[in-house]
Design a protein that fits this description.
This protein is an alpha+beta fold. The protein has helices spanning 3-10, 36-47, 103-112; strands at 29-32, 50-55, 59-64, 67-72, 96-99, 116-117, 122-124, 127-133, 139-145. It has a single domain, classed as 2,3-Dihydroxybiphenyl 1,2-Dioxygenase, domain 1 (Roll). The chain is built from three helices and nine strands. Strand 8 and strand 9 (139-145) form a beta hairpin. The protein is globular. The model is unreliable at 1-12 (pLDDT under 50).
């Protein structure tokens, strides 16, 4: 077998590769929300997501390119209390990071829409970013990479 044949026979389709524990891909990120319809409106109208599926008032999924965001309301199975009764609540500091162009223009447009900001624009060696909140306090970082 020549080198070219060896290389081509070693190429494995990702769908055929064995993965530990049956994990096949990332499905999405889940955010807890208090009002699913309100969250869908925020993500679709303010941030340009597409509505993929909804079963109001419990659940919806929205997408941005290949990224899927799952919005779980109080009636969703993904919102049930954890063992010991601890509720799953919106908020926190882990966040979705959306890549943008012209961050200052994005900030101005979102301010005009009344979007809540957690901070002022920060500038660092990797670029500039700002954190906004959805109507339930879940953070979204808008990031513009350095050129």
């Amino acid at each position: 077998m020549n080198r070219k044949e060896s290389r081509s026979s070693a190429v494995v389709d990702e769908t055929d590769r064995a993965r530990p524990h049956g994990i096949v891909s990332v499905h999405g990120v889940r955010y807890q929300v208090k009002d699913v319809a309100r969250a869908v409106t925020f993500y679709t109208e303010h941030l340009g997501f597409n509505l993929e599926h909804q079963q109001l008032p419990a659940f919806a999924s929205v997408s941005l390119g290949p990224f899927m965001l799952l919005l779980s309301g109080p009636g969703a199975s993904g919102s049930r209390p954890l063992p010991g009764g601890k509720p799953q609540e919106p908020g926190g500091w882990n966040r979705v990071v959306l890549r943008v162009t012209d961050l200052p223009a994005q900030i101005e447009a979102l301010k005009k829409l009344g979007v809540s900001f957690r901070n002022q624009m920060e500038v660092g060696p990797g670029g500039r970013q700002v954190q906004v909140e959805d109507p339930d306090g879940n953070p979204i970082e808008l990031f513009e990479p350095a050129r």
